[in-house]
């Protein structure tokens, strides 16, 4: 398969960021493939947690969370916290993917098209058939698959080259701030 001008440009970006192009491509594609199911499961978990709070504690979710934190029996609290913890871990994943998708959208060369391809293939709530995607994007099949591969590779750069390092910096800054803030109390 011949390498497009854009694919060569993407490969240079991988080299510049010292990222393994094929490994990141495989990880990016896998993450995109599971994204829709993760979001669906997350929504299901959030609804379950809300139902449990409403049914057992109160119609006010914040009051229920306070109650669970302060007064709930240990067994129930641990089960509930495990569910809540899973939700927040999923939220971080969704935030990272959203950050990468915004970066793709803003990309200077076909960014909106790449964003649209990824959205239709992996992100939107409902799966589209290949025919529906081709019609919605006004593309021929062969061009669609070339652009889709470029989009996934660009997503890999946006996630592993931009979003993850940015979030890691924020975590380090927050930890340093917390350490420095706490040192004043000693």
Description:
It is a single chain. With 186 residues, the protein is mostly helical. The protein has a domain at 5-36 and 87-175. The chain is 83% helix and 0% strand. It contains 7 helices and no strands. The longest helix is centred in the C-terminal third of the chain and has 43 residues, at 141-183. The chain is flat.
Short description:
This protein has 186 residues and is mainly α. The protein has helices spanning 5-16, 21-56, 61-70, 74-105, 111-123, 130-137, 141-183.
Number of strands: 0
The count of helical stretches stands at 7
Radius of gyration: 21 Å
In what range is the share of β-strand residues? under 5%
Parts with pLDDT < 50 across at least 5 consecutive residues: 178-186
Largest sheet: none
Q: What fraction, in percent, of the residue positions are helical?
A: over 70%
The class by helix and strand makeup works out as mainly alpha
Terminal-residue CA separation: 64 Å
Rounded mean pLDDT score: 79
Global outline: flat
Q: List SSEs in N-to-C order.
A: HHHHHHH
Q: What's the layout of helices and strands?
A:
Layout: H1 5-16, H2 21-56, H3 61-70, H4 74-105, H5 111-123, H6 130-137, H7 141-183
